[in-house]
Amino acid sequence: MRAQLRVVSIVLYLISIALTGCQTVVFMPTPNLYLNSETNPFDNVPEELRTSDAQVIFATDRLPLQDDDKGGPLEYGHDRSGYLACGVSTVAFGEGVDWPELVSQSLASGSRHPLLTRVTETQELFRFPDTSLYVKPNAAGSEKEGEPERSEKAANDQLYKLIHERLEYSEGHDAFVFIHGFDWPFDDAITMMAQLWHFLGRDGVPIVYSWPAGGSMGVLSYVNDLESAEFSVWHLKRFLVSLASCPDIERIHLIAHSRGGDITLAALRELHQFHQGAGVETRDVLKLGNIILAAPDLDIEVATQRILPEGLLAVPSRMTIYISDKDRAMGFASWFFGSLSRLGKVSLGMLTQTQRRPMEIVPTFDLIDARTKRQTFSGHSYFYQSPAVSSDLILILRDDLDPGEENGRPLRKGPPHYWVVDDDYPQFGPGRR
User: For all residues of the chain together, what is the average pLDDT?
Assistant: First the structure.
């Protein structure tokens, strides 16, 4: 009986967390920040970007799906690729929608005509060399072979050109990189980032780093994703280094969801070790602004070991972690792995004094407790489906605001650097505590 209950629980867990990767078909709810506001975030959008679609740059180590129909649309599946491909995907918001209607729908409260979002075209523009080509000439050697080095330089040049073109009409020169979680299809990650960039006022450049998540192996898909995440760390490191070397980029912000947080922290940890050994500041070299971990799917003790001793809290200009006790997916994950808690569902009472110490001494680290209504069955995708949480995300990424009503982010204050988001956020005034 116990074995049967375990199987049922595993299935329910996998269903609940898998559902989070398929919620980007309908346009995300209007962030509270824009409801009943005198400020229209779309007033300053350049004329060239006032369209009912959006283009998102991508980097992926997914293998393209083989289509028997030559000339068919390019799609990426869940199999792994030894090379990193880069390109551009176009996302359409609705059918036959013009810019004024899109703006109207984007600012609408309550029920509105559903805008279906979909990827209409994906173009792969260039590739970085396959990892198997990076070999050392001998046991003591450290130089790359000539051909991969030349190919990488060519890929970097094309990345610089692509970024330059995308920033031509942008006032800001920031890059926003989304790293998705378990079982997210490629297109879903693209459409989510397109929506977030739209609500950021279409400034800067939206980028998706898509690793080979998902599959058709049922219960084993999650186990496969754990190893695919490990597989993708080296490619993410390479991409972040290349992106940071783009002369037109001023800052890079990372938004990592669920298992994407594990990949992100692993990559940053290795890069930080390298730069420390070289005697340079990781933040400066990688141009790191905000690092946001939304509902991170990491064991709390593993996360503590990975973040604190390595000094990762000091790497970005600010690190923000969103947690929620309504995150059913993380609840199942805690049980599934037998962990004390997942980082995305940790409560203040679960933290030891040692784990709480960074909140007391590191001024650029914040824990945000999302006490909002669960938006889906799993409650795992609240970072963009909750109008309150998405508002806070925008205030961080768009305006670079510190928490606190006095700073323009009226979060409810708890212990040092512990904050609460309610459903009515953001509201200002004496009623806030």
Answer: 83
